[in-house]
Write a structure and sequence with these properties.
Strand content: 15-25%
Order of helices and strands: HHEEEEHHEH
Radius of gyration: 15 Å
Shape: globular
Bound molecules: zinc ion
Number of strands: 5
Strand order of the largest sheet: 4-3-2-1-5
Distance between the termini: 45 Å
Number of domains: 1
Length: about 130
């Protein structure tokens, strides 16, 4: 553990304004510190896709909708029990701390990349119903 690096507590304290999301806050901090929030930048179009790698696999997030492909978002947020899921909260924390794990991809890879995500999503829906 390097001394120069900000401790988890120090880092988390900067995002205390999100600590009201009790269930999600710690996991979001961990995800950001572990580089789990991925920013996939496609060139030359400049398209950006965000994913968060969690315990259950990689989740696709669209922070502008907002949308997350995880079960917690589907049942908890759309069901009205939670305001957000920890993946979307991770995005907010990563954005404010500029700690995205940036991955550069070529536009030619866009299709196979999204196909993979879509496949993942349909797979989950099948299991959910
Ligand atoms: Zn989620």
């Amino acid at each position: 553990m390097g001394q120069s690096r900000e401790s988890k507590e120090e880092f988390a304290s900067r995002f205390a304004h999100y600590s009201r999301y009790l269930g999600q806050f710690n996991r979001a901090i961990d995800a950001v510190l572990n580089g789990c929030v991925k920013m996939h930048v496609f060139s030359p179009s400049g398209r950006v896709i965000y994913t968060v790698v969690g315990r259950g696999g990689e989740e696709f997030i669209d922070p502008f909708k907002p949308f997350c492909s995880c079960k917690n978002f589907f049942f908890g947020v759309l069901g009205g029990r939670n305001q957000t899921c920890y993946h979307l909260l991770s995005y907010e924390v990563a954005k404010e701390s500029e700690r995205f794990d940036k991955i550069s991809l070529h536009d030619e890879e866009f299709e196979s990349f999204t196909e993979l995500l879509v496949h993942d999503l349909t797979d989950k829906e099948d299991r959910g119903t």
